[in-house]
Amino acid sequence: MSNNRFCHFKLVLLGDTAVGKSCLVVRFVRDEFFEFQEPTIGAAFLTQTLALDDATVKFEIWDTAGQERYRSLAPMYYRGAAAAVVVYDITNPDSFAGAKSWVKELQRRGDQNVVIAMAGNKADLEAHRKVDFNEANEYAEANGIIHMETSAKNANNVKALFSEIAKRLPNNTQGGNGEREAFPILPQKQEARNCC
């Protein structure tokens, strides 16, 4: 389309350690999956572009470390983010409690217009499920956030999750070059780095 807009948005992944944040983003960006992923130290930066009907959205993605000792660094990454994906592991109820804590923090301290999505990852491990889908869905609905169960291993709902986020970002407003001014991006190198 001749009037197809190109929009940049900062997106951050948050969640407890070992829930599959890095695996999820590597599946989205490079369509790869590694059974054994080294834990993220601090944060990793990746980019991915997604085409919608009326816009092309470039996500500038910060994949944050889940270890408790890095939690104090998180505000540096979610500040100014247009979207956040809070990840939990469907086989680990503590990670769901942690995800709810991240949602509260984003609602309290994040950008007031941030689009929040909650991803119940490791959906391929249905036999080991400990977090009820309906419970998580009701929580998401009550908080006005997106909820999907995903599997980085088999790619289930990974692209769909990021597409749904992109559709909810304000890329249809009047203006010349997308929403870069509305959602400032922290200064950073524009090249993708490996997350491992």
Automatic annotation (TrEMBL):
Keywords: Nucleotide-binding. CDD domains: Rab5_related. Pfam families: Ras. InterPro entries: P-loop_NTPase, Small_GTP-bd, Small_GTPase. SUPFAM superfamilies: P-loop containing nucleoside triphosphate hydrolases. This is Uncharacterized protein. PANTHER family: PTHR47978. Gene3D superfamilies: P-loop containing nucleotide triphosphate hydrolases. The keyword Nucleotide-binding applies. It comes from Cyclotella atomus. One of its GO terms (molecular function) is nucleotide binding. The keyword Acyltransferase does not apply.
